[in-house]
Fold these 3 entries.
Entry 1:
Amino acid sequence: MRTRKLRNKITAIAAAAMLVVSSMTVTAFADSEKGVTDSGGNTVTITKDLKLVDADNPSFVPTVPNVKFKYSIAAVEAADLGTVYKASTDSAYTKVKPGVAAALQATEGNIIFAPSNPVTTTATTNHVASNTLEITFKPDEFSAAGVYRYKITETGNTNSNVTENLTDNFRYIDVYVKNTNSGNVISGYVVTKKAESTDPNAVLKTEGFTDDYQKYTEDANTHVLTKSGSETTVADVSTYTTYDLTVSKKVDGDLGDKSYGFGFSVAFTSEAADESMRKPDNNGVVLKTTHSAGTEIANKTIASNVASIGATLKHNESITIQGIPADTMKYVVTETAHTSDNYVVTAKAYANASATDMTETAVNSGATGALEINKGAGKNAVEYTNTLASVSPTGLVFKIMPYIIMIALALVLGYVYLGRRNKANE
């Protein structure tokens, strides 16, 4: 009995010891540094950042657009081989091997953004949406242990409002394969921007096509990469740009009614004459309209049946429409005529609320005032002025004087007639 109890105790102690030892076991990737995946498995995740910028108001957060980024994945050529990046303090390092093409589950992939994507804002004006692409490898296709290199290349996107600011349009994926009793397994991945870690100030490890500002420094002997603590100014990211439009109202003239609300509508078109702003890339994009008087105006979501944006403006009031896609090259602002008075309507379009380019245009007189603006000239503000001047008093005298003369003459003639009649009766 004692022997059995002793054996049970020894077994329990041994199991506990094994558990402790296993919990202390780490791989070469356990420092969880940027770009290093220590979970192993057959899938590596590549992240794509899309920066959102409103050119006229950096703090405004534009809606994420519909855009598909396209990628090709392939085993590297010999020219792309280099020294492996080490993530541990081990001074030993190895040369990478060309990737095995048969180990790739797919050679193409897409990262797709849509208006439903969440946005992260830092420092008030840095708005970034992120999405991912999973690349799957087949470990049975690797014939031996080692570090195998692949190359993922961004080949373009589908939205004309997105500009590419990538320093390089490719990334390297180093796949770490190790031997086990059950065969070759993938133990981890390292994603890098360069084939060789020779530039101590280069951004090397990365999560993919992301907004990487952090510098890394490499130890010449150990090839360990550590963050240097300083930031670069390189915005290595794709950017989606929008702009704003401000429509303002003034009433002039002695008889101008400054309490009257003039109706306005704003419609947009794209650069091509027959192409509406409501193309598929813009579906779901939200336009936010703010009224200077605080009047609530519902946001408009661009879709196949979206109506123009409407508002009522009195003297010295304005609306600002934010989040307009950058390739929306023209807009038509239309003012509804006054219900009774015959105002002279003029308008001027200018850039960035500056009076340096305020060319006045006679829109109409007493009727609907429609003004088509070519945003390509950098104009993002329109000011309408309705003038109703007072009528000259002199003019009034001239208009009624003939009637006064006629009445006076009739009175004189009547007096003369009556005077003569009275004399005749005497």
Entry 2:
Amino acid sequence: MNSRIIFIFFFSALLSYGLSAQKIYSLSGVYKGENLWVQNPFLPKTQEFCVQQVRLNGKTILKDIKLSAFQIDMDMYLRSRNLYDPVRISLVHEEDCVPHVPNVEVISPDASFLFTSVFISADTLYWEVRDEAPKAEYLVERLQEVGRWEHQTRVPVDRIGMERSYFVIPEFKTGLNKFRIRYISPDQEDILSMFTETHYAAKEINFYPLPVKDKMTLSKKTYFEILNLKNEVLLKGDVRVIPLRRLPPGSYYIVLDGRKYPFVKR
């Protein structure tokens, strides 16, 4: 933690004794879009696992846990999933053990940096922030499947200001796209933005001139394949201008975004 952080992260073990001789281990922080992991020791003496219940903001969300390690999926149980909302996790456990949470930093508040907005407009991803650290950077991430985010590009902090805005043109897939931004500070702490989403319909790629002489130009850079009439691949790549000077005159196909188009080389 650096001196810019003005919140103090507390976690405490609160003890409560009753007929079951259990204790409560509590963590307090803020919701930042990630899950907590809990290491849950097995007790040979009682043939039970350490943690008996998990409470999130006072509500029991897990019980009778029979795993040596598990995660607390706050997305699943929080009523509102607003970033930086306060959260309190209580682990009700046996008296003779202590559970361990190895990634408490995912709920550790950091008041010095804040995402103020993230949105998509005209196929461009924008985000606005305040109070960046020098030499920090951003990772643009797109949801590939449930629980798996793909890194697309890195954006360094280019200059420091109270409030800053950034934009990139991300790679879209056809259909629903969800994006988020990951802020990585110089001391390797990271903070996730809220996610933003949009539906994307792929635009048909055009090519010219027709007929072709020395080269073919595509309306945007993309992967292509040139086929002969036997559907054999003669040339492939990922460019916007395709050199075709060495291609003999004749009839061919070009494959773009899974579609096949005929063309003639003169």
Entry 3:
Amino acid sequence: MAIRIAAISPRCITGDIRHNTEIILTAANEAARVCASVLILPKDAVTGADCGFLTINRDFIRNRKNAEDAIAERLKELNISVRYSTSELSYAGKFMTLRRRLLNESEQNESAFIYVNAAPTNTVSRGVYGGEVFACQGGKILAECGMLSWDNNVAIFDIEGDLYEVVNTSGGFDIEPALRRNPYFPKDKKDYPAFCDEVTKLQYNALASRLGFVKAHTAVINVSGGLDSAHALLITCLAADSIGMKRSEISALILPGFGTSARTLNNARRLCKILGVAVDEIDIRDGCTTVFNNIKHDKTVDDLTFENTQARYRTMLALNIANKRGGFMVGTGNMSEAALGFTTFGGDALSMYNPNCGLTKTAMREIVQYLIKSETVGNGVSVILEDILNTPISPELRFPRLDCGDISQVTEDIVGPYELNDFFLYHHLLGYGMDEIEIFAKTVFVADYLEEVIQHWLASFTRRFYAASFKRIMMPEGPAVLYPPLTDKFIPGDIKL
């Protein structure tokens, strides 16, 4: 005997119980219309996903109970039973992995599996809920709705027999060591394009959701001509396109300082022009000099105070301009910098939302290369991005070299190669010890680095990671798009190992 099932991921909103109740009742009526006997919804559909401490608030609990009673009464009238699946963040590659696993298991066991995730209309505070709907039986797909649909994802299908499993967790990712140069990416390079596409969509959908939520008149972003800000600007443009915001309503700030090179300044100007965003160019040297005079700092000494003053001054300008224009400051920093503490507290680490916070530096390079090859950004933009990729990574906060006026600070000379640091980070977040990580790294990078070099940078990574805990505590919200994420790994700021 066949059972007709309606699996629906409705456009629920975190915290809005009244709206969610209405949309669930609409889903129930749709299930009745197609003669379904079972309705499957995401977990926490009534309250929306990730309501935080509100789940222990008495008013919230009472409102939820009243809504659940109203829904149960209507389902009883319609003679429909309800079951709940899951509400979990959609990391890049996660659904692809789950889909493959469920198909294999259903083929082996002749069983049926149904998976329904919360919709992307829920909170994007920590990441994106993809709204995926998937059902299979005996190795065959019965229904599938991909992630990031802004409409209700609805799947109506029949299951043979009365035995089926509603999946309440994706099962996560493989936690075995990833013995490859870029562990955050798939094993098979054929999967890279689809993976990069998922990352990009998760990022710009998250930012679009937040821009819409705050009703921002403009998105304000600092553009340096480096990789991080170039990528964040591209994501901001895609987010604006998706919600009907004109690119001319994006406020790009080009803020050259004491260490800005001609190459990065030129690339920042060219990129903003070709993308069609509004530009304000403000030389920050006079403003920073005023700060130096106020705090009695010698402006010819390019020490840490000299560097951080510039980073904080840029952030102050961006936040104040966002205030003045009814806008929203978009962050640009990446997960690798946050892990290493290579950020300025109260400076570039601050923003109102950071779409790049869940992306490592090595992943960002791969994704920008993908955007170039896929022609997503256009030929003119690709030429500029190629040059940005070939520019040494630098915060450009110190005076240029006297002999050629070029960049004097090279980040990887200070913190170590990013491909090593990101490899260390991946395995550290999975819980591996430093001795194990050292063995993994020596295996993967045997042809690239001497053993003592790997040991040196691993010790540096460990020291920096824990010393920077206090900085990460005040990180802005943003989407975790890669697994394992850093954003949910709390460590006290005064931990001592």
